[in-house]
Inverse folding.
């Protein structure tokens, strides 16, 4: 614990992070698993770590998830 | 960060059997006659719907709205449809076809909004707005003496520890709030390369601040 939690969270990196290219390559598979309620964080920890840390990829994930859920209703 | 040489889908089947609805899409799109035309029209309708929804979700944060945002959505849908028909053979059946197809249009909207940023950039690329950091990281005004000391240490680490390219990326994204995709475009790079550069910069800066007692050492080794 320290006095600068937001800064610490931003600077902290996760070695499992797969990067943008691999996360985007698998995004459709990951989103379908999320919609199905599968344990994606366990199955794809490197993608989960990346989507938490990368603003643009996280934004694309949210967008695709909203699109798929919206089309399902 | 995991090396790019090991695909994350290595453990999944190279090609799964598509579900019935996906198989129907593939069959119709492979047709040469009116069935293909009908499927393309249906797919285009889906892509336009998704693009408009996504543009509306993101647009307000980027000060773009109205007909300009609608044009962007239609253009994204048209470009996505072209990409999908060109890459149809790459669909591996690991997800529903429509999820795979929607990914193209989401990424198109994302890329087009990145390009839009440079039409009205809020700050020059090389400005250094250190004053925005206390707000961005929620520093308490009551602790100003402490965080001024921290910021001075961070600034020294940015100057001493980062390569010129890492420094440029850190300054643009963290100090000047330039979107990562927009920066990638400006530097003729790509999202993955810029993210990797920022990732390495974050790791170095955290290590420097921890070494000087400003942040705790990472017991789990994930710094």
């Amino acid at each position: 614990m320290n006095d600068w939690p937001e800064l610490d969270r931003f600077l902290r990196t996760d070695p499992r992070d797969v990067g943008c290219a691999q996360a985007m390559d698998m995004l459709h598979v990951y989103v379908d698993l999320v919609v199905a309620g599968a344990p994606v964080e366990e199955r794809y920890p490197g993608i989960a770590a990346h989507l938490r840390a990368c603003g643009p990829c996280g934004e694309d994930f949210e967008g695709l998830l909203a699109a798929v859920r919206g089309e399902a209703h | 960060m995991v090396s790019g040489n090991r695909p994350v889908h290595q453990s999944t089947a190279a090609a799964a059997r598509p579900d019935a609805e996906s198989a129907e899409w593939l069959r119709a799109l492979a047709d040469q006659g009116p069935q293909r035309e009908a499927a393309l029209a249906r797919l285009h309708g889906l892509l336009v719907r998704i693009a408009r929804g996504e543009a509306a979700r993101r647009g307000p944060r980027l000060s773009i709205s109205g007909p300009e945002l609608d044009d962007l959505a239609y253009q994204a849908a048209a470009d996505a449809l072209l990409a999908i028909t060109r890459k149809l053979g790459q669909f591996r059946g690991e997800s529903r076809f429509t999820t795979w197809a929607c990914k193209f249009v989401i990424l198109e909207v994302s890329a087009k909004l990145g390009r839009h940023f440079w039409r009205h950039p809020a700050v020059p690329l090389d400005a250094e707005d250190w004053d925005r950091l206390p707000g961005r990281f929620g520093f308490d005004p009551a602790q100003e003496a402490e965080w001024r000391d921290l910021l001075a240490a961070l600034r020294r680490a940015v100057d001493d520890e980062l390569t010129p390219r890492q420094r440029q990326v850190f300054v643009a994204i963290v100090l000047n709030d330039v979107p990562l995709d927009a920066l990638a475009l400006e530097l003729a790079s790509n999202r993955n390369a810029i993210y990797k550069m920022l990732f390495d910069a974050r790791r170095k800066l955290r290590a420097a601040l921890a070494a000087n007692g400003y942040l705790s050492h990472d017991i789990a080794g994930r710094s």
